[in-house]
Every structure is written in C-alpha cells, then in structure tokens.
C-alpha cells in the first residue's frame, strides 16, 4: 500500500509540475545546490516503470530503476575509434562543458565511471539505440553513429534542464537509472524554413538547427528562393543576388485590393557559398541533412528580375514586394533549362545530401497559354495541356538531377500532367496527393497545411497573437496527426517516409517570431514522426511537454504558451 501511495504521489507531482522541496524526499540522493531540479528527479524516481520519463519524442520502451548516475569530472566516455562516433558525442560534450564546467574525455583510462558506446550490429535501424543507465556506468548500443547521437540526445533530456544553460551552473548533474530501447517510426523527420520572403541570419539558422536536433529531427528543408527574394549565391549568375536578393519595399500587414501600403524600405540579403557550406556542415554535425529548395517553374520573380530572358513575357520583372502567387514563371525553352541546370550544378556541389527540392507548386499557366513558343513546344512534344507542359518541365529537371545522383522532391502539384520517374512527392494540399503518389509507388512526405503549417495561428482567439498567415493549428491538432493515411493498403504504407512542419515567412520577420510559431508545435510533431502511433496519447504527452518547456525557458526560446492554459 505504501508503495502504491508513493507512486501516486509521484505521478501527481509529475502532472502538476509544482516546485518540489528537497526535504520532501529525505531518502533521495540529494546533494546539490539546485534542490528544485534534483528533487524533481527524485519525484520521477518514484514513478512505476509504466509511467514515462519526461522525454520527447517518447521512446519505444523505457523502464525506471532505483538510483541515479552522477555526471562529474571523473566521468569518461568510451566509444569506437571512428570520426562519426566522435561526432555523435560532440554536442553532448559541448553542452556539458558549458553548463557543468567540465567535458567528459574520450577513451581515457583511469576514470571512476564511464559512458560506454558500443557498435551493435543486431540493432537493425541505423537511427535506433538502446540506453541503459546504471549507478556507475551508462551503456549505449547502436549499429550506426546516428543511433548513438540520438541516444546522447535522450541522455541530455534525462539530465536537469540547466544542462541547456549557456553559462556555468553550480549544481549536481544526475541521471535517473533506466533502460530505454528506441528507434524512429519514420526516416524523414523534417522542419522547413522559408528564408525567401524574410531573411534569417546564419546564427538564426544555427539556433533553429540546434532546437531541431534536441527533438531528433533529421531533415532541414531550406526554402532558398521565392518571388520576394533569391537567397543563395550562384557564381555563374551574380545578378541573382545582386538584383534578385533585394526588393524595393514590403507590403504592410494583410492588405488586398487598391488600398495596399508598403514600407518603402529596400529589403534583402543572401548567403554566400561559404556561409551555405558552414550551415550545411553545422547541420551535418547534428546528424541533420539539409535539403535545399530552388523554386521552379513558378515562384521565380526574383530570378526573372535578374535575368528576364528566361521568362515568357517581355518584362521588365521586379522582385515581388507583396505576398501571393504571380503569373510570371520560367519559360520552358532551351536557354532556361541551361540556366537552371547551371544553377543546380552549383547547388548540388554545395549540398552533399541525397535530395534537391525543386518546388513545382502554384504554377499559373497564363503566360504559357499566351506564349507562341510554348504552344509550338506542346505541339512538337504532343502535350495535350499546360498541365502536361508543367510535367515536361519537371521531368526534364528530374532527369538532370538523376545524372547528378540526386533525388528530386516536389510539392504535390508535380503529380499534375504525369509524375516524373523516381520523384518524391511532398503533399501539402491535404493528404490526397500523398495517397495518390503512394499508390503509384512513389515515396511521400506528408506536410498538409491542415496540420503542419506552423505559420498558422495557434489560438481560436488570435486577437492577442502576432500576425500570422491564417487558419488554426493547435499543439493538440499537430499531435493527433497520423502521417500514414488509413486509405492506403498495407503494401502501400511503406512509401510514406515521414512528415514535416513548414514555416512560411510572410509574417515571420525575426527569430523571436520564428520560435513563437514553431514551438511547442514542433515538439508535438517530433513525437508524431518518431514514436509508435499506438503509444501516442495526448493526456500523457501534455505533462511531458510542460516539463520540456522548462528546457526551452533555459534556452530563452520564445515559445507560444497556450498549452500552459489548457
């Protein structure tokens, strides 16, 4: 009876997240200046093994045992003599060094206790791992450095939240003893950032990547070109950044019709190729693959402003100063294809990952309908409609990327007029496009605006919210999303490789607002794409989320606090 009462007490402490005094648990191993954090660990220690530790995303299985491992200067790390495995612990070492003032040394004898990483080929999923925390030793098994990295991220979440501090904190660093077995549900766990409409600095992007890595996201979709700005240096075409990276003002607020007002301020910016390499490497060190998006054949006014000869109209063109979809698109003539191939040749050299996103969405066909060249091309190629002309365009670029050993991704409009061989579909207009592509045996990334557009409002009463695109997507709505549609047959579900949260930046102008829109919804999505569907329960997730918000507080993240009121 006493044990049951203790378990219930701990459970309610965990749910309420009230501050706990160290004296409430006299038998716990408390020897720290920061009594609140350690006392909370002691409360968690009383939980039964059926109650989860406050980890996000939730592991496949975990069980608690008595006691704690104490991380201190006598702790060493043993791991395979391999550069990738050393990279897997780099983030852990950095955070411990900053917050605790010491860094566990690698493969040094004479330490009193160890974190031991072992290569284990029996673990099939390269991102999977097992983690066993004892009082004197922590043992991690993984078949690949990726799995080792995610084990270390879990280990960081088991430490007090001050491990995320950017300055030294005087406290003890205890980890509850436990056994965790884990692997992700999906291989594509993505977050997107539109830097075309509003530009974010290198440091902003790195901060975003740091937060992604904490919650085991592994794909950074970097939306680099838009009607409102071209953000990547292309050596062969310098006017793309000299002209296309800047616009002559920005529309103020949400305005439509004849009464539009603009700020009149020149706005822009771009990443040099050296800066791109720096960000790509930074992401890689966090086991995140960077996926660049170069929009075509639409959303290209910034490129046409720099090189008008690649449009179907006479021009002149101007980098867009307002939001929306524009009729000016690339003209599918040989010179345009040579230009885009040149651009993508430089892009593929900068991004070693397997994927290149070419957009393909919201292509207004009017300029093609009015173009004599396009109409003659359609007759020559026996194309029945401008939809098929779009498919012709996408197929051409797909074949080029295939020669570069890259996989092409496009928004679900690339289904229109016929899907390119080997193309991956990113489904944003609901799940319908993803379902169609999966039935055609094409890989699919689900990113429906109904659940995954984090530029939408987060509260039904948005009068006190920052200006957002529209709609309503709550944390709970994100959490309840299942990327694998019920309509798919069992042999079709494997084509759904994951999901992604999107941040379109019409009204996201700086990093604080970016964080507000992304968090904590990104934490809900991290569990959607990592944890088993049958284990996800909102009422169990919510207290873990509130516990995680303490970490975001330490990091100074400007997250939305609606969840605290519910």
State the gist of this model.
With 566 residues, the chain is an alpha/beta fold.
Would you give an account of this structure?
The chain has 566 residues and is an alpha/beta fold. It has two domains: 51-182, Chitobiase/beta-hexosaminidase domain 2-like (Chitobiase, domain 2, 2-Layer Sandwich), CATH 3.30.379.10; 188-565, Glycosidases (TIM Barrel), CATH 3.20.20.80. Helix content is 34%, strand content 17%. The chain contains 18 helices and 19 strands. An eight-stranded parallel β-barrel has the order 8-9-14-15-16-17-18-19, surrounded by five helices. A hairpin with a 3-residue loop joins strand 5 and strand 6. Helix 5 packs parallel to helix 7 (273-285) and helix 9 packs across helix 12 (386-403). It is globular and about 80 Å long. The two termini are 33 Å apart.
Largest sheet strand order: 8-9-14-15-16-17-18-19
- By DSSP, the count of extended strands is 19
CATH architecture classification name of the largest domain: Alpha-Beta Barrel
**Number of domains in the coordinates?**
2
Distance between the termini: 33 Å
Apparent shape? globular
Indicate the percent of residues in helices. Answer: 25-40%
Fraction in beta strands: 15-25%
**Strand count, sense and closure of the main sheet?**
8 strands, parallel, barrel
Structural class: alpha/beta
Number of helices: 18
Question: What is the fourth-level CATH superfamily of the largest domain?
Answer: Glycosidases
Rg computed from alpha carbons, rounded to a whole number of angstroms: 25 Å
Low-confidence stretches: 1-51
| Average pLDDT | 91
Q: Give the CATH level 1 class of the largest domain.
A: Alpha Beta
Could you tell me the CATH topology label of the largest domain.
TIM Barrel
